[in-house]
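Chapter summary example: a protein plus coenzyme A.
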Amino acid sequence: MILNLKISDFNTDQIKDIVFIERQSQYSSWTEKMFLAEAENKFSFFKIIKNDNKIIGYIIYRIVFDEAEILNIVVDKNFRGLKVGKYILNFAIENIKGKKCSAIFLEVHQNNIIAQKLYEQTGFKKYGLREKYYSSFDAILMKLSI
Ligand SMILES: CC(C)(COP(=O)(O)OP(=O)(O)OC[C@H]1O[C@@H](n2cnc3c(N)ncnc32)[C@H](O)[C@@H]1OP(=O)(O)O)[C@@H](O)C(=O)NCCC(=O)NCCS
């Protein structure tokens, strides 16, 4: 499939599309309220990715001083495995690098092997574990030094 990808800032008109895609993620369950709060947060960056004119994913990250954290990344299930996740993650990394950060952190569910592979391929390294962070499951802590 040939994609015509474009990344832009989230705006509140797009909230329904974002919540629809979020519900396809078995590893996160953000509510509309959480997305809107993040959009208002001055430390947060909320980027959406479109194929032609259709929203097919998003990434949310925060930058506080010289550290960044990836909070959420989801790709529409009909567009997974097409490097869209890698594309938007790399976009965020480049954006974060431009803001003089020294490291990017994230947490990933121990069973979310696909996301772990995406992060490892992008250069993130595992550095710790937060036990039982997702009720009975651990969170793996990952870091990218930039
Ligand atoms: C994780 C997610 C964002 C990846 O997006 P994607 O566009 O499907 O991923 P990409 O096509 O860019 O693939 C990136 C890498 O992930 C891995 N990957 C992707 N799909 C995979 C699959 N079905 N099986 C195994 N590895 C896979 C591969 O290493 C791949 O790189 P490669 O194609 O060069 O081998 C997407 O699967 C998703 O939205 N999942 C649900 C939400 C989620 O888990 N978010 C992360 C929370 S921490």
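Key point: The first helix runs from residue 15 to 22.
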